[in-house]
Amino acid sequence: MARRSNAILGLALVVLTAIGAVMAEKSAGCGKEPTIKSQQYTMTVNGKSRQYIMKLPDRYDKDTPHKLIFTWHQRGGSAQKIVNGENINQGGALPYYGLNALANNTAIFVVPNGLNSGWANSGGEDITFFDQLVKTVEDALCVDTNLRFSTGFSYGGAMSYAVACARPKVIRAVAVLSGGVLSGCSGGNDPVAYYGQHGTSDSVLNVSGGRQMRDKFVKNNGCTPVSPEPQPNGANSVKTVYKGCKEGYPVTWVIHKGDHNPSQTDSGSSTPFAPKNTWDFFSQFT
Ligand SMILES: *[C@@H]1O[C@H](CO)[C@@H](O)[C@H](O)[C@H]1NC(C)=O
Ligand SMILES: *[C@@H]1O[C@H](CO)[C@@H](O)[C@H](O)[C@H]1NC(C)=O
């Protein structure tokens, strides 16, 4: 009898787990009238005043769990420049790194502003900022807590990497564009889905640094290393999807021949490839 009820309990757990895997995990803000709008806010983190800009979908639905995407700016940048976008012919990025244009009302964007225009993350204070933002936003808005993402170029890539290292259970995937280890890597022993993009001619943060960052997650995610190292195909980027990774922890790497720039294009195209690559990587998770 006891064995039989254990078997039934076991079956119930299997069924519940299977349901959990397919259903969105709703944040506390689901079903509530939104108390956050598309505008700039301030919060106090470790006694310091911190600014961030929120961007809700034009057709925000309080009952639909949304993706939550953090977009961190580059050194000398600002949250406002991420919102506005910068001239892509002068090394800038499209608004929200081009992701809002692809999101079709499915994503909420958090655009944090750095202290001294960067992400030094002294004593982990920018990770604490991230933690507080997740809590504040998810209490007010409807987020799928399985679908939190982070991206950025350069220093913003460094900050996304720091988030992957320190908050592997919070963040579903990161996209690091021409990053370096500038914001630290506290932890860094757990798998996180990882998209990396770097140029072989990067004169600011060299490509070997970008490859080392990628290789941490190739290892953590259990993927099979690729040898020889992928190279650009002339003027075109080359995308490598790693094989053998643990279920749910893919790694994609894009190598191009360009310099330190988030808006590289392939030959014959005027559309930067980072936005679609990033969006495809993030939206494979449901
Ligand atoms: C955007 O989302 C709406 C509503 O889900 C859908 O009907 C429409 O086809 C989508 N558009 C694109 C371009 O994916
Ligand atoms: C790349 O940058 C790192 C970190 O600044 C440095 O230690 C390394 O020597 C550089 N490697 C090359 C090949 O320039």
Helices, strands, pairings?
Layout: H1 2-22, E1 40-45, E2 48-55, E3 66-72, H2 79-84, H3 100-103, E4 107-112, H4 125-140, E5 143-153, H5 155-166, E6 173-177, E7 193-199, H6 207-220, E8 238-241, E9 251-256, H7 274-283
The protein binds 2-acetamido-2-deoxy-beta-D-glucopyranose (NAG) (2 copies).
The site of one 2-acetamido-2-deoxy-beta-D-glucopyranose has 3 residues, from helix 6.
CATH hierarchy: architecture: 3-Layer(aba) Sandwich
Instruction: Provide the helix percentage.
Output: 25-40%
Total domains: 1
The major sheet is characterized as: 9 strands, mixed
Associated small molecules:
2-acetamido-2-deoxy-beta-D-glucopyranose
CA-atom Rg in angstroms: 19 Å
Strand order of the largest sheet: 1-2-4-3-5-6-7-9-8
Structural class: alpha/beta
Main CATH class: Alpha Beta
What does the overall shape look like? Answer: globular
Number of helices: 7
Descriptive tags:
AB_hydrolase_fold; feruloyl esterase activity; single chain; alpha/beta; EC 3.1.1.73; globular; binds 2-acetamido-2-deoxy-beta-D-glucopyranose; 9-stranded mixed β-sheet; 9 strands; polysaccharide degradation; carbohydrate metabolism
What does it look like?
Strand 5, helix 5 (155-166) and strand 6 form a beta-alpha-beta unit. 44% of the residues are buried. The chain is built from seven helices and nine strands. Helix content is 29%, strand content 21%. The radius of gyration is 19 Å and the shape is globular. It has one domain: 3-Layer(aba) Sandwich (Rossmann fold), CATH 3.40.50.1820. It has helices spanning 2-22, 79-84, 100-103, 125-140, 155-166, 207-220, 274-283, and strands at 40-45, 48-55, 66-72, 107-112, 143-153, 173-177, 193-199, 238-241, 251-256. It has 286 residues and is α/β, with parallel strands linked by helices. It has a nine-stranded mixed sheet, with helices on both faces. One 2-acetamido-2-deoxy-beta-D-glucopyranose binds at residues 206, 208-209. One 2-acetamido-2-deoxy-beta-D-glucopyranose (NAG) binds next to helix 6. Keywords: Carbohydrate metabolism, Hydrolase, Polysaccharide degradation, Secreted, Signal, Xylan degradation. It is found in: Secreted.
